[in-house]
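User: Design a sequence. Structure:
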């Protein structure tokens, strides 16, 4: 099965993906240990199996344990999810998406963050993106 974006994941599935991306790999027991208010062990295993069927995870065996790994690196997953979000909500307009993000967070952006964004915009201009 092909890897998919993480746009359509439930809150719990996103939590699991975050754990597995951060660790690089994890068993069901490790995922359960790191989940906030975890469900039962069998529920965690069922979620992992479902996420594997959906193409978000794959597993390798380590003795009798399944070790789950992401099918996409975190950076590729982010890019894929952003691309889908741009297409779905912003008519492929980076400008509209950035404007919406700035509107949502304008009161929380530090001068340092604004300066870093300004540098990124300058670099994009120079590269002719």
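Assistant: Done.
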């Amino acid at each position: 099965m092909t890897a998919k974006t993480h746009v359509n994941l439930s809150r719990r599935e996103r939590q699991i993906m975050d754990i597995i991306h951060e660790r690089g790999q994890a068993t069901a027991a490790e995922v359960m240990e790191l989940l906030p208010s975890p469900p039962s062990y069998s529920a965690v295993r069922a979620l992992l199996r479902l996420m594997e069927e959906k193409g978000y995870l794959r597993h390798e065996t380590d003795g009798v344990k399944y070790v789950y790994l992401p099918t996409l690196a975190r950076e590729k997953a982010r890019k894929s999810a952003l691309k889908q979000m741009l297409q779905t909500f912003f008519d492929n307009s980076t400008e509209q998406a950035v404007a919406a993000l700035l509107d949502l967070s304008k009161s929380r952006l530090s001068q340092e963050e604004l300066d870093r964004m300004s540098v990124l915009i300058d670099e994009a201009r120079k590269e002719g993106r």
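The chain has a mean pLDDT of 86. Residues 93-129 form one domain.
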